[in-house]
Amino acid sequence: MTIQLRAPSYFVLASLMDGALHGYVIIKRVEALSGGAVRLAAGSLYAVLDRLADAGLVEVVSEEIVNGRARRYYALTADGGNALQDEAARLAAAAKVVTSATARRRAVTTAASPA
């Protein structure tokens, strides 16, 4: 299944590449991985996680009570890992189109410039 992920979903999946994390750590990891471009509030994060879980891309792998609050740990599923790899490849291919076109345009401009 190939799906196009929006930036928040992409970076949430990417944050889980190295293992299960709970919400606060996911928020911090998303911000770091995106260079600050994606900043999720807690409510937004859990909406993204719910959508990803409904799609079978992440799952709750454990839960604990910390200071009277439930802390859920989320992990990538195999489908989530595949979706992340597919999206990374799609983004790389899209970037290559632009960088190749830019390089060709520069080459034409440089060749056409008087010496």
Structure in words:
It comes from Dactylosporangium aurantiacum. This is Helix-turn-helix transcriptional regulator. It is a single chain. With 115 residues, the chain is of the alpha+beta class. It has one domain: Arc Repressor Mutant, subunit A, CATH 1.10.10.10. The protein has four helices and three strands. A three-stranded antiparallel beta sheet has the order 1-3-2. The model has no long low-confidence stretch (mean pLDDT 90).
Which spans of ≥5 residues are poorly predicted at pLDDT below 50?
Answer: none
Describe the biggest sheet?
A: 3 strands, antiparallel
Q: Shape from CA axes? A: elongated
| Secondary structural class | alpha+beta
Helix content: 55-70%
The fold-level CATH name is: Arc Repressor Mutant, subunit A
Strand content: 15-25%
| Assigned CATH architecture | Orthogonal Bundle
Characteristic key phrases:
59% helix; Arc Repressor Mutant, subunit A; 115 residues; alpha+beta; Helix-turn-helix transcriptional regulator; WH_DNA-bd_sf; elongated; single chain; 3-stranded antiparallel β-sheet
